[in-house]
Design a protein that fits this description.
The structure holds 2 protein chains of 2 kinds.
Chain A (H helix, E strand, L loop, with lengths): L2 E3 L2 E3 L3 E3 L21 E7 L12 E4 L2 E4 L7 H14 L4 E6 L4 H13 L4 E5 L10 H4 L2 H14 L3 E6 L6 H11 L3 E4 L3 E3 L2 E2 L4 E2 L6 E4 L4 H12 L6 E4 L5 H10 L3 E4 L2 H4 L3 H16 L3 H4 L7
Parallel strand pairs in A: 3-4, 3-16, 4-7, 7-8, 8-9, 9-10, 10-15, 15-16
Antiparallel strand pairs in A: 1-2, 5-6, 6-14, 11-14, 12-13
Helix pairs in contact in A: 2-4, 4-5, 6-7, 7-9
Chain B lengths: L2 E12 L4 E7 L1 H6 L5 E4 L11 E4 L2 E3 L2 E7 L3 H7 L5 E8 L11 E7 L3 H10 L3 E8 L5 H10 L2 E6 L6 E2 L2 H12 L4 E6 L2 H10 L5 E4 L15 E3 L6 E3 L6 E3 L6
Parallel strand pairs in B: 8-9, 8-12, 9-10, 10-11, 12-13
Antiparallel strand pairs in B: 1-2, 1-7, 2-6, 3-4, 3-7, 5-6, 13-16, 14-15
Classes of the chains: A alpha/beta, B alpha/beta.
GO molecular function, one term (chain B): oxidoreductase activity
Family (chain B): Belongs to the PyrK family.
Protein name (chain B): Dihydroorotate dehydrogenase electron transfer subunit
Chain lengths: ~300, ~250
């Protein structure tokens, strides 16, 4: 079940997705976190961010809109308060990095490199902030520039997390690859809204947010399938995976690994069930993991 | 520490148009549960409704937990019609209510399902307990009887005047506050938003605890959804982690 991306070997292809698993160690007394392929942390910014005012969540049919706004303690406190515990978990930690300016991505990456972090995920796709995130991810040139600048300063594995909001995701994916990304994370949430008719207002305080959950699975799956044909770097598939079967869909479409997001909220044990489910599937089909990755896809 | 349990539905009792009670066989959670905590229930298998639904624990003894639920949306509607069988329950979640000092007088102010965590608390503490409860219409006699059994004194208001004082709970409370309030009086408040806002103006914020609801993704600290603003500080804390009970002087409502 092992996978390799660049020079890093992961125990298995099942990761937790950024923003859906806290800083990563909250559930360490309850879950055998060392069994995960990797943990992707909450988005970490240079300075502490308080996040958006509530309500921050609204449920939609088979989906969840969120407008958390990247609440986080900032890189300095993250390194001091969270990293020691995360390093002790015994699985790969991928730090999700967010910046309002290009230099902030670089700055954080430098700090993480110094702290011995081997994998980062550049968040170029969050829809819930006024500056940075999705705004950067919409511009091919900026995407390439951010990845290039981070690449100059970070030797480990760089995942770039992209989103399909208002962009040609094929072009953006290729820009990230050209900039030096080692892998792509597809996809971040899809921008959306929901309205409280009775009270004549938006359900989210900020008006709109990012949609996740099974509702977006077919969109995410198609994007993974399509981008796989255009790039030569591995893809981490994410978007509405809720069981082993939907995880395997992403692998068959071309994802090298998958990330579990919203389903963690409903079933925090889900990643372990998916690891077992993929193992059981491979055994039943008498196939190896590398055989099912991209099985339904042609380059 | 929380667990997931496949809890057996022992009974679903219709109390009136709005309210119903669910009794679940939940040997692990019932032993761990403390007053003020909640459980998060997967309404049915599959992707709809997607999220679990959080419910305060009404009572927990032996191997059972009891929940008093108001039908307010699709989740609580489906749950009410659930056939006997097993449902997934995660809990207990959130911080328990604090143990009172021996001579504290405990005043419990509950509106609608806001009475639920207050009842569990009152059941477990030995102090003098005064209940103020407010409903839109006359509450079910079964609910009333339960509260009478665990309180030393009970005041009731209904908005339509069909039972007790006619009007909102804070109006009834204002008439009694002088006789009740002392430095030893601790207030525990839980109910709809408008009620909390009204009581905020009346109660001493350093002796009032408020049990809050939040729109939750998980209930166990990982989604950062159920944010509540700290009073006099520019940051948010979480209903599921730091709460659901807060000292009123610490949070903005």
């Amino acid at each position: 079940m092992k996978i390799r991306i660049k020079n890093i070997e992961f125990k298995n292809p099942v990761f937790t997705a950024s923003g859906t698993f806290g800083y990563g160690d909250e559930l360490k007394d309850i879950l055998p976190l060392e069994k995960l392929g990797a943990i992707v942390t909450k988005g970490i910014s240079l300075k502490e961010r308080k996040g958006n005012p509530p309500p921050r969540l609204a449920e939609t049919p088979c989906g969840l809109l969120n407008s958390i706004g990247l609440e986080n303690i900032g890189i300095e406190r993250f390194v001091k308060e969270k990293l020691p515990s995360l390093k002790n978990i015994g699985t790969e930690i991928i730090v999700n990095v967010f910046g309002e300016k290009i230099e902030e991505y670089v700055e954080i990456s430098k700090i993480l490199e110094k702290e011995g972090i081997r994998c980062i995920e550049l968040n170029l796709s969050c829809p819930n902030v006024e500056k940075g995130g999705m705004e950067f991810g919409r511009d091919e040139k900026i995407v390439r520039k951010i990845v290039e600048k981070v690449r100059e300063n970070f030797n480990g594995v760089i995942f770039v997390k992209l989103s399909p909001n208002f962009v040609d995701i094929l072009k953006i994916s290729k820009s990230a690859e050209k900039g030096g990304a080692d892998a792509l994370t597809l996809i971040n949430t899809i921008i959306g809204t929901s309205i409280d008719v009775e009270n004549l207002c938006f359900k989210l305080k900020r008006g709109f947010g990012g949609l996740s959950g099974p509702a977006i699975r077919p969109i995410a799956l198609y994007i993974v399938y399509r981008v796989y044909q255009e790039v030569d770097i591995p893809i981490a598939g994410v978007g509405g995976i809720s069981d082993a079967k939907s995880a395997i869909e992403f692998l068959l479409a071309g994802a090298t690994c998958i990330q579990i997001g919203t389903q963690n909220f409903i079933d925090p044990w889900i990643s372990f069930k998916i690891i077992d489910g993929i193992k059981e599937f491979l055994k039943r089909k008498n196939m190896k993991l590398e055989e099912i990755i991209g099985y339904l896809n042609k380059k | 520490m929380f667990v997931e349990e496949k809890a057996e539905i022992i009974n679903i009792i219709d109390l009136d148009k709005d309210y119903y009670e669910i009794i679940l066989s939940s040997p692990q959670i019932s032993k761990l549960a403390k007053p003020g905590q909640f459980v998060n229930i997967k309404i049915q298998e599959g992707d709809f409704p997607l999220l679990r639904r959080p419910f305060s624990i009404w009572s927990a003894k032996e191997n059972y937990i009891e929940l008093l639920i108001k039908e307010i949306g699709i989740g609580t509607k489906i749950l009410r019609k659930e056939k006997k069988g097993k449902i997934s329950v995660i809990g207990p979640l959130g911080k328990p209510f604090p143990s009172p000092q021996k001579d504290d007088i405990i005043v419990l102010l509950g509106g609608g399902t806001g009475i639920v965590p207050l009842c569990f608390y009152a059941e477990k503490i030995e102090n003098k307990k005064i209940f103020f409860i407010g409903f839109k219409h006359s509450p079910n006699p079964y609910i009333l009887k339960r509260i009478e059994e665990i309180s030393d004194k009970i005041f009731i208001s209904t908005e339509d005047g069909s039972f007790g004082f006619k009007g909102i709970l804070s109006e009834l409370f204002k008439e009694e506050i002088e006789d009740i309030d002392s430095e030893k009086t601790k207030y525990f408040l839980c109910g709809p938003y408008e009620m909390l806002k009204t009581f905020e103006k009346i109660l001493p914020i350093d002796r009032t605890f408020i049990s809050l609801e939040g729109i939750m993704g998980c209930g166990f600290e990982i989604c950062m959804g159920c944010a509540v603003k700290k009073r006099d500080e520019d940051r948010y804390i979480r209903v599921c982690k730091e709460g659901p009970l807060f000292l009123l002087k610490d949070v903005e409502i």
